[in-house]
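ping. complex inputs:
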Amino acid sequence: MKDHPYIVAISGASGSIYGVRLIKALVELDRQVLVILSNSGLEVLSHEMGYKKIDGKTEAFKEFLVSCGVQMRSQDQLEVFYEDQMASASASGSFIHCGMVVVPCSMKTLSAISSGFADTLLTRSADVCLKERRPLILVPRETPYNLIHLENMTRAHLAGAVILAPSPSFYGFPKTIEDLVDTVVARILDHLKISHDLLPRWSS
Ligand SMILES: Cc1cc2nc3c(=O)[nH]c(=O)nc-3n(C[C@H](O)[C@H](O)[C@H](O)COP(=O)(O)O)c2cc1C
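pong. complex structure:
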């Protein structure tokens, strides 16, 4: 496996499929992945992707990922954490990683990150990214946005986060939902500076 881990955090906005697809891509690209799940993220995963919630059971989430086609090379390629595990490594600036993606990012999590309200492992880890100047990509999902959402995005951007909206592209003629999702996940991988072949690149 290559280098340090990537953090993928799934919060409680619609679009958990983006987070799961990113985890799958990173695992296939031989990266180590640290997953952080908010409580509401688990709710939405149950609702949108049929995840069966079993509180605090890391193995259950790994089995769910396997059922989504994620094929880990070894058990330690992927670690799963819940929002209340504040004593975990990623809550500390001394923990080195290659970047964190909050995908999907709810308006509540966006608000917490943009105001420094770091009361869960997810929001604390994002806060640490900003202070340590490590890559932080937020994939906010809501529509339409109100002024508070927009201002929070601006603040997060000014603090160093990349706001990467889940706006799928259509010029590659996607045929399935997975194809559409990949148009967004490909841009996330680009911003993490990871080479991939999820999509053909635009050339005229
Ligand atoms: C099925 C479902 C879909 C939701 N979709 C969104 C959404 O797209 N965007 C959003 O900001 N909140 C959404 N919410 C509300 C959030 O889950 C809620 O604000 C929650 O407190 C977010 O917590 P978290 O940021 O800690 O994960 C959704 C809730 C449910 C149950």
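Residues 45 and 51 are 6 Å apart (CA to CA).
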